[in-house]
Specification:
9 strands, alpha/beta, Spore Coat Polysaccharide Biosynthesis Protein SpsA, Chain A, three-stranded mixed β-sheet, single chain, globular, four-stranded mixed β-sheet, 181 residues
Length: 181
């Protein structure tokens, strides 16, 4: 898996790479349990049985450089949405264990309600409810290290030198442009 290889190559500290999935993968995995559809399955990151602080990447993220700054941030961090500057984007997050309980408790009070209420914005719109104005924003604390393939026009300009993680939201996906996962 390309994401695991990228993290292993660019994270210079001991770590455990885990894939949260309902599919068979060739890495350590934590099985999904709730059966929530699509992006809502990401809410399982907040389960109590998943211990420790998490540096989270969507599976279609391409790691392009040293991740030590991101791994050592030590506080809640998430992306600013690349198209909605007043919103959040959950493609890359640092989630301290201490903040996960609140997200889990609120969401699991009534998952169907939140999935319906935030059907357009999904998990990241739900996270805005709890984290907007409270979380560090990657683009502010580590400028240029997390970038969108589309918004940064990488097809025309290439990957900027200071970029550490390239996110793919919507189309294209890495496989569509020849970056294999």
């Amino acid at each position: 898996m390309r994401l695991e290889a990228g993290v292993s190559a660019h994270l210079g500290i001991p770590h455990r790479f885990v894939c949260l999935t309902d599919m068979h993968v060739l890495c350590d995995m934590v099985p999904l349990e709730e059966g929530w559809p699509g992006w809502w399955s990401k809410m399982e990151l907040f389960r109590a049985d998943i211990a420790g602080d998490l540096l989270y990447f969507d599976l279609d993220t391409i790691i392009t450089g040293d991740l030590s700054d991101m791994a050592s941030i030590g506080r809640l961090a998430i992306m600013r949405d690349v198209y909605r500057p007043d919103g959040l984007q959950s493609s890359v997050m640092f989630i301290p264990e201490a903040v996960r309980k609140q997200v889990w408790e609120v969401f699991t009070e009534d998952p169907a309600h939140y999935m319906a209420q935030y059907s357009c914005g999904g998990d990241q719109a739900f996270l805005e409810l709890l984290w907007l104005g409270k979380a560090a924003i990657w683009q502010d604390v580590l400028p240029g290290q997390v970038q969108s393939y589309k918004a940064a026009h990488m097809a025309e300009r290439g990957v900027p030198d200071n970029c550490r993680a390239v996110i793919f939201h919507g189309r294209p996906k890495p496989r569509d442009i020849g970056w294999k996962l």
